[in-house]
Please model this.
Amino acid sequence: MNAPHGLFDEVARDWPERLALIVETMKEMSRQTDPQEMSRAYGKRMQTLRPTDRMVSISRRDLKSPWYRVTRCTLWTEDINPWRDRDRLPLLQGGLFAELLYGDEPHLFDNVQLADDDPAAEYVAGMRSLLAIPMYDRGVALNMVLFMREEANAFSHEQFPEIVWMSNLFGRATHNLVLSEKLKAAYESVDYEMKVVADIQRSLLPTKMPDIPTLSLAAFYQTSHRAGGDYYDFFPLPNGKWGILIADVSGHGTPAAVIMAVTHSLAHTHTGPATPPGHLLDHVNRHLTSLYTAQSDTFVTAFYGIYDPAERSLTYASAGHNPPRLKRCIDGTLALLDGATSLPLGISPAQTYRERTYRLMPGDQLVLYTDGITEAYNEHGEMFGLTRLDKVLENCAIGASDLLESVLAALKEFTGSQPAHDDRTLLVAKIS
Model:
């Protein structure tokens, strides 16, 4: 019998040398990010550690007995990627390779001989020794690697279990890389679609602040994901009045963005001008509950106010939304616009929304927001809260834009590096 050659041959290499080779091999494999390159690098490394005269890989993935594909062969002069060029792989039926592959067990042949009409004959021609190593996936040998030598009795029976073990570990690593590539491609596809959804959603928001006499406005909008469920809008109304709407869809991401778009559509398809506030919310609520939210737990909080520049008054209705904060700079008092609050939109089709009018004064500062602002957390799990928001409102010497930036600066200082876990929308109005 010829002396065996291979990784576990203690005669050929002492253990420190073998350990160094194994470590270097594992380091090289860990650097690979492409399964094809990893297979190529591993094959070269194994040829050094365990010399063979020929290697053939076969697969029965997505096939039925006795069919199989040849996925790799050292006889080939062209490098074929089995994951990307599947249609170019030889498709064979029956014979020794099919028997081995569908047998789900490793085999060692000291003197293999094939009939000339065996489909595997051309791949085994001139070889005497053969190792058949199944590569298990969920307990089944979907793939198999065959190592061959020209001389008989060339492989050590003692080393065979370790070879099966090592080969399967490499097979799992390669399989994980393939899954990683597929996952990356799927993520990139979903991320692209989410970006498109986010772009569409942002196109539904006002492109600029309206020019309203006696009222200056500033707005901030940030989603926690690519797309979100926050929404704000402005409606020009008869007699120089303006509608101001802010809304927050329950949930996050694409589902919330879809309902946000639906809410936008319903608000803009209201028959006639979007007035009075309660009628607009009634309209949106009826359609949401009858067509979109009846079979789900989704709802929408909303605050809609109509500002009269001549009277400096705000007539509003609220569908369970956070009450806007009103800072009376003339006397330093703080008020909440919470006098006309009802259930959120999309819960009860019979719900109607009452209204209330509030007279504003020059210098008043009004802040409309979604709960992503006040419920923003810092690294200690503390919420930003209303007290910190009200503290910023104490500065009455600045305009709407500067007041908005002050709130955002306080929020950033509080949350630090913590990401936004909810959509954040902020509307600041200053009465002039």
